[in-house]
């Protein structure tokens, strides 16, 4: 194992789950992305387990289970508060719609299970004591940083078109290169992507945008023509591509890059693409804020009030976008943020009730307006966040 003894080792924590299966006489292995990431020395995400036990047998062996995908053979086993997907060795029947296998059959042999997996780097099983089962030479692919299909790439993409998106998102996350066969198969089979549910494409595309090597992956997405099958992205002509790809996108997250995409394609608002990409309302709003903030701040100076109203996180994101867009240094938003006397209205030393009392007046829109004025003066430093001082100012305003 690659973990140092004093580090929390997620495989060590999952070991009792494997051992329970093994002592009941079943075969069981760690498998998939976690094994790949262990070999790469990357941080390991969810740990998946593959076993000869059927879902029913898994359910009887463990106290806490959730039937998350029984029809595909998957049971979530909860062990010490952590969930592990335990999936019965299976092979897949024919794919009628380039998305889902018409049926899955349970099999007794781990090699057969590994054969249904997408890429060789994801088709390695590891025993409880760290031995590898690697019939497709996935370790070699990991060492040489290549993304190779298990079996014929054309056939595998014909079965499940989402694998093409997975290939480019792994490229972005891992910095690996597609084998020539995978690249060629994507070019040939790209039109099948339209059969894949937009939600699934979106998940993969956002992982791609968040990857460290998203620049290279986007280039492959465009070069192979895979983008032609995706709404909005299909509008990318040569000039727009160059404009986007000349930016150093590696530090930006998917929302920031979406805002760039909209800017490059001269699309007014994130709301106009939300439906096609099936964005949640929250996601759309977040992209919209970044897009409008970027458009305004690209031609304005950062003031205390601007930084305060956007909030630290959004202001930093916008500043980072502008720095990336114009290849300039960031303009010290964090320093402005740190110099602010308050970071939210809640920290204001007075409330609406104070204003009502001091002015001995009845409520109305003036309260909100005056509070906002006070807030702005305090943020900009022309008024101290001090009750007595604010009261004096409020009474003076009253007399004006
Ligand atoms: P991540 O680190 O992003 O979770 P992962 O490789 O673990 O990457 P998952 O989607 O969690 O990806 O899938 C777990 C495993 O299931 C994969 O490693 C692969 O072996 C297999 N798999 C997932 N999706 C497919 C697919 N569409 N076709 C074939 N095998 C797949
Ligand atoms: Mg995973």
Structural overview:
- It is a single chain.
- The protein is α+β, with helices and mostly antiparallel strands and 400 residues long.
- It folds into four domains: 1-143, Beta Polymerase, domain 2; 145-230, Hydrophobic Seed Protein, CATH 1.10.110; 246-340, Methane Monooxygenase Hydroxylase, Chain G, domain 1 (Up-down Bundle), CATH 1.20.58.560; 341-399, Serum Albumin, Chain A, Domain 1 (Orthogonal Bundle), CATH 1.10.246.80.
- The chain is built from 20 helices and eleven strands.
- The strands form three sheets. A seven-stranded mixed sheet has the order 3-4-5-2-1-8-9.
- A hairpin with a 5-residue loop joins strand 8 and strand 9 (132-133).
- The longest helix is centred in the C-terminal third of the chain and has 17 residues, at 281-297.
- The relative contact order is 0.05.
- The structure holds adenosine-5'-triphosphate (ATP) and magnesium ion.
- Magnesium ion is lined by residues 32-33, 45-46.
What are its keywords?
binds adenosine-5'-triphosphate; 400 residues; 4 domains; elongated; seven-stranded mixed β-sheet; 11 strands; 20 helices; two-stranded antiparallel ribbon; Beta Polymerase, domain 2; alpha+beta; Methane Monooxygenase Hydroxylase, Chain G, domain 1; binds magnesium ion; Hydrophobic Seed Protein; single chain
Briefly characterize the structure.
This protein is an alpha+beta fold and about 400 residues long. The chain has helices at about 10-25, 35-40, 55-60, 110-115, 140-145, 155-160, 160-175, 180-190, 200-210, 215-225, 240-245, 255-265, 275, 280-295, 305-310, 310-325, 335-340, 350-360, 365-380, 385-400; strands at about 30, 50, 65-70, 75-80, 80-90, 90, 105, 125, 130-135, 145, 175-180.
């Amino acid at each position: 194992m690659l973990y140092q003894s004093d580090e929390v080792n997620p495989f060590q924590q999952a070991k009792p789950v494997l051992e329970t299966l093994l002592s009941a006489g079943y075969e069981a292995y760690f498998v998939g992305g976690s094994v790949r990431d262990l070999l790469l020395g990357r941080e390991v995400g969810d740990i998946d387990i593959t076993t000869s036990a059927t879902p029913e047998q898994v359910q009887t062996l463990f106290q806490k289970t959730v039937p998350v995908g029984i029809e595909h053979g998957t049971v979530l086993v909860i062990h010490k508060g952590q969930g592990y997907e335990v999936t019965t060795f299976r092979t897949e029947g024919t794919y009628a719609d380039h998305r889902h296998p018409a049926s899955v059959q349970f099999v007794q042999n781990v090699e057969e299970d590994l054969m249904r997996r997408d890429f060789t780097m994801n088709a390695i099983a590891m025993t409880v004591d760290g031995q590898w089962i690697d019939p497709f030479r996935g370790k070699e692919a990991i060492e040489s940083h290549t993304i190779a299909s298990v079996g014929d790439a054309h056939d595998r993409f014909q079965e499940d078109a989402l694998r093409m998106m997975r290939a480019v998102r792994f490229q972005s996350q891992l910095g690996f290169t597609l084998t020539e066969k995978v690249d060629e198969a994507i070019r040939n089979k790209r039109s099948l992507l339209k059969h894949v549910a937009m939600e699934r494409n979106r998940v993969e595309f956002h992982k791609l945008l968040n990857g460290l090597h998203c620049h290279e992956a986007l280039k492959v997405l465009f070069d192979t023509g895979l983008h032609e099958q995706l709404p909005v992205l299909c509008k990318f002509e040569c000039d727009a591509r160059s404009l986007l790809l000349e930016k150093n996108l590696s530090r930006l997250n998917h929302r920031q890059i979406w805002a760039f995409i909209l800017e490059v394609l001269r699309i007014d608002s994130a709301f106009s693409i939300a439906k096609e990409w099936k964005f949640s309302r929250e996601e759309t709003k977040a992209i919209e804020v970044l897009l409008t903030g970027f458009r305004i701040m690209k031609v304005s100076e950062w003031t205390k009030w601007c930084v305060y109203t956007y909030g630290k996180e959004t202001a930093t994101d916008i500043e980072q976008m502008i720095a990336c867009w114009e290849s300039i240094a960031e303009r010290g938003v964090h320093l402005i943020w740190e110099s602010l006397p308050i970071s939210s209205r809640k920290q204001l030393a007075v409330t609406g009730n104070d204003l009502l009392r001091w002015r001995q007046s009845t409520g109305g829109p003036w309260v909100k307006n005056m509070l906002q004025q006070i807030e702005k003066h305090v943020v900009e430093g022309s008024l101290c966040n001090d009750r007595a001082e604010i009261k004096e100012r409020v009474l003076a305003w009253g007399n004006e």
